[in-house]
Specification:
Elements lengths: L6 H19 L13 H13 L4 E5 L5 H13 L3 E5 L2 H14 L5 E5 L12 E6 L6 H8 L3 E10 L5 H13 L3 E6 L5 E6 L1
Length: 196
């Protein structure tokens, strides 16, 4: 997965990494920045996704599509598709461009809109990566966990650097008897929960 990464994906990742680095230094307003995960978090979520059971793969908060590229590597490896949700028009346009340039349109479906409006249906979610505005994490958690299949994985970014804001959701996850959960101290911290 990492050793034979397609060149188009690697090139788009490198480009997005350079834009993200620049945005963090030049005073780009917060909502205009890419605010994407670092490469080590991308690798981590790709490993989690590759180990998830059969079912739907979701991402809540696409931004420019960087983390979706990591997840696309896992999807291609295990024969799955990723549905990713982005609410902001500008970010959705960037993500469309990312997916086209990286050649992952055959395994990544971008849904422009609020993920909470689309999180319905059966308990067939095998993997979900949550990296959106922090004020919706609790609502997303409550929408996703009941839809996780047995062994399904929820990974939520920013569990350490936004711990104060996310505390209600984190406490809920760590005490929820539907999942086994822990916070992994990688980059900004990733809450990982596995459905029992």
């Amino acid at each position: 997965m990492f050793h034979d990464m397609p060149r188009a994906i690697a090139e788009r990742m490198a480009y997005l990494e350079s834009v993200d680095s620049r945005d963090r230094l030049d005073g780009t307003p917060r909502l205009e920045r890419l605010r994407q995960v670092p490469p080590q978090t991308g690798r981590f979520i790709a490993l989690l996704a590759a180990a998830a059971p059969a079912g739907r793969y979701l991402e809540i908060g696409t931004s420019a599509g960087y983390s979706a590229l990591w997840l696309a590597l896992a999807c291609r490896l295990v024969g799955r598709r990723l549905t990713t949700f982005e609410i902001l028009d500008e970010k959705a346009a960037l993500a469309r461009k990312t997916f086209a340039l990286a050649g992952v349109g055959d395994i990544v479906d971008l849904v422009q809109g609020d993920a909470l409006d689309h999180l319905t249906g059966p308990a067939d979610v095998a993997f979900c990566f949550l990296d959106a505005e922090k004020d919706i994490y609790s609502a997303c958690y409550e929408a996703v966990v009941p839809r996780l299949t047995a062994g399904g994985i929820l990974a939520a970014d920013n569990a350490i650097n936004h711990e104060a804001t996310l505390r209600p959701m984190l406490e809920r996850a760590l005490s929820d008897d539907r999942i086994d959960a822990l916070i992994v101290p990688i980059a900004s911290g990733v809450l990982v929960g596995r459905r029992l």
